[in-house]
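Contributing new records

If you add data, match the layout below exactly. Sequence lines come first and carry their own label; structure lines follow with theirs. Keep one chain per record. Anything else will be rejected by the validation script.
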Amino acid sequence: MKAGKFLTLAFETSCDETSVAVVADGREVLSNVISSQIEVHQAYGGVVPEIASRHHLDNINVVLAEALTEAGVSFRDIDLVGVTHGPGLVGALLIGLSTAKAVAYAAGLPIVGVHHIQGHISANYIENKSLEPPFLGVVVSGGHTNIIDVLGYNEYEVLGKTRDDAAGEAFDKVARVLGLGYPGGPAIDILAAGGDPHAVEFKRVYLEKDSLDFSFSGIKTGVLNYLNTRKTKGDAINKADVAAGFQLAVVEVIVNKAVQAALKTNRKKVVLAGGVAANSLLRRMFAEACSAEGLELIYPSLAYCTDNAAMIGCAAYYRYKSGFVDDMSLDAYPALKL
């Protein structure tokens, strides 16, 4: 069944997706099963940690069985277990981690803990078989906005990060005040397509000179103040224009800082990752900016932008091949640093 391939069984439960995958030789996805909780959390306007944990508990064994069946393998065929152990919601992380440890212990398999951001970056290896470090990584998701110099498969230098809200978090919060529901990113992307991005201008925050850090709390407040002022005056609000102006202000800062970082580090490849990497304006503006500077832009398909276990399996493979192995003391760390 294995045909000589090295198989990694991977688990991802850092937030509200329960996912299990089987990955061959680090880059060939044999299965990647994802059970989403979006509909469950829509009623609350965002992810409720305790509810997420309960659903992971209900779903994990079903998703595991489906992943093995879809890949056409059994536990006897597996060589390695990989699992996200941070950052994320601690209760959610523990469900995947406990299951992964149980499988590794019962089957006598090595286990490797994976940083969630490393997983997102590794998603690009799956569809870009020739991609190898070094390159500039840009991770934009609901919980993270990072510019990372990827020096090796397991060697990273964080050049910039958010000092408050992550980009995806800002999208969700603005979507909530606009009455667009959850998840906010896709809703704003769709609504903004019908708006004028320059009808409502929001302040771009670049922080100190040459800083590669981000701050999105101010623009979120700017949107709220604009909406409150219009309502107080009884003026009409064009939600599409607001969404378009907000989206442009966020994306413009991310693209400008990322290209600045690529030129500063002399990296010729810019690699996007994370849920917000699915944003159509982000992809378009990155493509234009990278083309203008002679940089190669790489990003995963939509299926690998959001949380999934295949990316964790890829990252676990390269950690294991580099000599990283954990034991049964492996724990969950909600604020794990890269």
